Automatic annotation (TrEMBL):
Similarity section: Belongs to the complex I NDUFB11 subunit family.
Bilayer topology annotation: Single-pass membrane protein
Known partners and oligomeric status: Complex I is composed of 45 different subunits. Interacts with BCAP31.
Protein name: NADH dehydrogenase [ubiquinone] 1 beta subcomplex subunit 11, mitochondrial
Cellular localisation: Mitochondrion inner membrane
Gene Ontology cellular-component annotations: mitochondrial inner membrane; respiratory chain complex I
Gene of this entry: NDUFB11
Amino acid sequence: MMAALGRCARRLLLLRGFPARGARAGSGPGGGAAAAVVTPPPAAAAPRQQHEEEEDMVAALRKNPDYHGFDADPVMDVWNMRLAFFFGISLCIVVGATFLHYLPEHGMRKWARREAERMVKERERLGLPVLDSNYFDPSKLVLPAEDEE
């Protein structure tokens, strides 16, 4: 993301006639003007590939002033930008938030409370005490014989 923003800023500077490299503010971990880093001007013998790439960017920006950085063709640039924002915003954020909203609750606390309230009402309806010292009915438990221990 930051690299894409850096490329866009570099393209705008090239379009306005400024050099590709210069003072960069806020590039450090602290950001802001206190972290400004001044880089030396580019050497006279800049790499040929970078120079050609910058010329291509300037040509694309002059051809299409509303250049979004997706394609040199203006029509494809707009369509690619729209698709990127549709999938990035609509699908990721909206569908992702909907998915997270409808996830089952963690720990099932609400279900446990509803189940406890249902059990209390059932025991009150049958005339049994709400709480019993035996969790299971002792007459239904099968215990091992004492001589097997």
